[in-house]
Amino acid sequence: MAARGAWVVVAGLVAVATLAGVAAQQRDLQVEKAGPAATAVTIPRSYAVVVGISQYQNMPDRGLQFADRDAESIYSILISPEGGNFRAENVHKLIGPQATLAGLRRELEVWLPSAAGEQDRVLIYFAGHGFVAGGKAYLAPHDLDPARIASTGYPMDALGKVVGSSIKARYKILLTDACHSGAIAPDATAALNRNLLDLDRSLFSLTASRDRESSFESAEWGGGHGIFTYYVVKGLEGEADSNADGIVTADELGEYARRNVREATNARQNPTSDRGSWDPNLPLAYIPRILARRAATLPASDFGALVLEANIDGVEVFVDGKSAGVVSRGKPLKLQGLRPGTHTVKGVKMGYEPDGPREEMVYPGQETTVTIKILYTQRRNKRAAGLLDDGMEHYNKGYAENYRKAAGEFEKALALDPGFSRAALYLGRAYNALFEFEKAERYFRRAIEIDPDYLEARATFGGMLLDLGSFDEAIRQLNAVVQRDPDHALAHSLLAQAFRMKDLYPQSIESARKAIRLAPANPEARFFLADSLRLSGSYEAAQKEYLEYLRLSDYESKLAGKVNYYVLGFLAGIGKKKRAAQQDIWKDLRSLAYFGLGDCDRLLSRPDPAIENYLKALGYDKEDPKVHWGLGLALARKAELSGSPETLPEARRYFRAVIELNPHLAEAEQAKKYIAKIDALLAGQGRR
Length: 688
Hints:
This protein has four domains: 2-14 and 44-218 and 261-278, Rossmann fold, CATH 3.40.50.1460; 304-372, Immunoglobulin-like, CATH 2.60.40; 385-568, Tetratricopeptide repeat domain (Serine Threonine Protein Phosphatase 5, Tetratricopeptide repeat); 583-684, Alpha Horseshoe (Serine Threonine Protein Phosphatase 5, Tetratricopeptide repeat). Helix content is 45%, strand content 16%. It contains 22 helices and 22 strands. The strands form six sheets. Strands 2, 3, 4, 5, 9, 10 and 14 form a seven-stranded mixed beta sheet that branches. The chain has a four-stranded antiparallel beta sheet with strand order 18-17-20-21, with no helix packed on it. Strands 1-11-12 form a three-stranded antiparallel beta sheet. The termini are far apart. Mean pLDDT is 79; it is low at 5-39, 180-189, 196-202, 294-301 and 557-582.
């Protein structure tokens, strides 16, 4: 266990009652099949900034092991519907090089105060280093210069002003994890903790350690975490729900973290708190599933642990239906802070029969070793495998008729071999291509149920969720994939799309660039990178990416069997799908790319190339009102720049087309106004 030179700050997360001296009544272990009825709860609208910095630009010798990973875990539990219940677009994430001083100022001082309302909940999470200079405390951004801390660090008094005064949210809190760890002197650590507790007396503050104590991080906690963050995440997953009502409150999370951090470090790390005037019953997480396995009579103070070991490498372990991490031979995974009682455990590895699920008992104050044995390779029914191959021949041809034939073969294969996850996956894909989404979802979930570590199935399911406009759930599914496999190019490409559809352009750009780095020939990642760059105002850069997309996707007559756009979900959410055919989707994306090029040219006051690109877009889709709208604007702009009304009648024709194609669009109302202006101008010149 290594002492960790990290801070963790969580604002808006915990409105905790006084923790010191709270003693829970000790009771005998009782396990019941169900707990009390769930209490109705209203989760407030919530905003968060999540920051994690493991490696520093100017401090290569002071890196942390798990700060980035901690931030990703916090992000995942916050956006989970069985967790923080934050909407994905309301959680801004700064990891590593993104977490600059300018980035922190932008998110903390501009975005959060402008976004949060008086009845909202605000959360700030920071995992990284902190320093003291000239008697003042500072958070260390990625670009901090240790020789110029006062000018390159983020002042704690600035954070106090922002959280205490600028942010008007009803619920806001500060949780801090400060230690010296050779990087910060003991006196400095004490000063940091005092600064955090005294930022604003109206705030609730919880520090992860006392003055002069270290805060630890270790691979021993959930495969690698800061200990404080590990217990915050476990608590929000439901382990902190001491009364088993399906709600994790501020009081429960604070008590859970305090007890477990203290016990796990043999009292070397002791979280402390300063309450303020907050409601201790503020709901932080809502997890009704725990009611099925937990009762209020379980002891609130004694927790246990599972030590998971496996006979082969790369076994993913699921505890109570949630992935707990990956176990390899000789490298056990310890899950601490589990509530006493039965927990279901399942070990899975693609290509093998799973071990479990089975129930394992967790005892108060004890470790229970669970050995996962992956012994048997999955045996495929030869007839089922043949049916899958037959179905694939139809499937790869594209078009609705072939997808229907493929689905018939896949259904036969799955009936013969109910454990054939690949057949379930392609059955989901076939129905997805036929727009039969309920069936598609059923079979995607079936594939994941058969093989929970089937990342291809999970990623494709995320693509379909994008098709349905379920962007938050898609992000959760895809985020699980990239956490398990950071080099999963498809998941990054789909995340780029999901973030684009949520108007989270920086995140979309980051994900698209990761996808391109992993798969340079991936045209769709280029498309969503271009779209997000355009919508961010980077028109020249966007045009380069649109052109690269068009080059990479120039399949023309060779499209069939070359790439299956639809099943990868690349057109999700754009609203232009018409038929279950690869050719149609390819045409839609080509149209959108030329539209993007035209928009960039128009916004750069280059009407002639804009008109040319818009016309190319119409060549693929003559009924897109947005393209007609762009053409009208470009032609009107050309008339303005040239000083001649020559192109105005044509502009009027395209504005009229917008109204005829979709009179309900906002652009249609604007088009009416433009037409009136054009008519007045032309009438004055006798040219109507």
